[in-house]
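Severity: low
Component: inverse-folding endpoint
Summary: output formatting inconsistent between runs
Steps to reproduce: submit the following structure tokens with default settings.
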């Protein structure tokens, strides 16, 4: 390799490294991509089973929770579809964020959304629980269930 070509090689390598680094940093995480593409394998009927602690203000996970909520809430139109996969829903569902919880044993953060239904003799509405791994940030499961009147 000549001195000039070696310099050019390192210049190209540097630009390639910067491009790869920027691509990795700028890539946005899309937890609902598979659902948007019609793959609902991650969705289960029922409720999350685990020992959870409510995170009132988000505590040390506030930044993570805010980011996950943002990703979910950019795709609000998909939330009713998640429920409709398992339940015969008689009306339009409008989901609202209710709370975040921590399962420290399983290292999961759970985000709960609720959609109220009106004039039903037994049900108050439907809930969706999004379960994210704290370690990887990946969406590991989604649970949907009916919520009875109390």
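Observed output (run 2 of 3):
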């Amino acid at each position: 390799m000549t001195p000039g070509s070696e310099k050019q090689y390192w210049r190209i390598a540097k630009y390639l490294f910067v491009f790869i680094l920027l691509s990795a940093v700028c890539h946005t995480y899309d937890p609902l991509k598979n659902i948007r593409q019609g793959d609902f394998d991650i969705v289960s009927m029922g409720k999350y089973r685990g020992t959870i602690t409510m995170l009132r203000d988000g505590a040390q996970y506030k930044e993570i929770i805010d980011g996950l909520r943002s990703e979910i809430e950019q795709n609000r139109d998909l939330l009713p579809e998640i429920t409709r996969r398992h339940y015969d829903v008689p009306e339009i569902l409008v989901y609202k964020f209710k709370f975040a919880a921590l399962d420290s044993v399983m290292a999961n953060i759970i985000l709960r959304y609720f959609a109220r239904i009106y004039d039903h003799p037994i049900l108050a509405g439907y809930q969706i629980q999004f379960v994210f791994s704290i370690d990887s940030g990946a969406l590991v499961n989604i649970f949907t269930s009916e919520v009875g009147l109390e």
